[in-house]
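Second attempt. The first submission of Response regulator had a stray character pasted in from the spreadsheet, which I only caught after the job came back as garbage. Lesson logged: always re-copy from the clean sequence file. Corrected sequence (237 aa) follows.
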Amino acid sequence: MDALSSMMPIQAPTARRPLLGVTVLVVEDSRYASEAVRLMCLRSGARIRRADSLETAKRHLAVYRPTVALIDVGLPDGSGLALIEALASAAPRIDVILGISGEPSTEDAVIAAGADGFIAKPISNLAAFQHAILAHLPQDRQPPGPRLLQDETVKPDDVAYQDDLNHIAQVLRDDESCDIEYVTQFLGGIARSARDDDLNQAVRDLMKSRTDGTSVKPDMDALSELVNTRIAAAGPL
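This time the job returned cleanly.
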C-alpha cells in the first residue's frame, strides 16, 4: 500500500458506491479502455491508477499494493500473463487479480496464469464491472445489505479513441519492427470497445492471413489505410 493510502482510513462501501475503499491498478495501454475503467471506478467509489506497460506496472507495484489489479493480456513490452503469474504467486497477494482482453479465447490462459477472473472487452457495463470485482473481494470489503444494481453503459470520450488510433498508426508505419500480434490485440480491443465493425473485420482478416501463412502485407496495408481514414475523418481534436 502506498504512503498516502496508509495514512487514510479505509472507507466503508455502500450500496450505491460498492467499491469505496478499493484501489484499482489498471495495466492497459489503450487510453479508450482505460478511460472506460476510470469512469466506472469513479461511479463505484474506487480509486484508480493506470500503467500503460509492464515496466510502468512494476514501478507502481514497487511503491504500493492495490486492492485490485486489472491486467491486459496484450501490452507493448510483453504479455500481461507474465505479470498475472507473478502477482498470483506473490505474498502478500493482491486481493483481486483480473485479466482483460479483446479476445475472449484468452480466458483459459488468464485463469491458468492464476487470475481470479476474466473480463472481455469492451468493458462498458457498470453492474458487470462491479460484480467482476465484488465476486472476489473478502467479506469485510463487501457493501452491507442489498447492492443497488446500476445497469449503466459507460462510453469514454472519443478523444481517447483517437489517441489510440494515432498510437497504432505510428506502430503500423514502422514496418520492420511491427509486432503483428500486438497490433491485432490492441486494435481488436479498441474496435470492439468503439463498436467499429469494419475495423474489427480488418483485424480479423490480418489474423487469418497470419494463421494461414499467407502474405500479411495486403491486410496490413488495408488496416493501415482504414486507421488513417478514421483519423482523417475525425479532424483536429
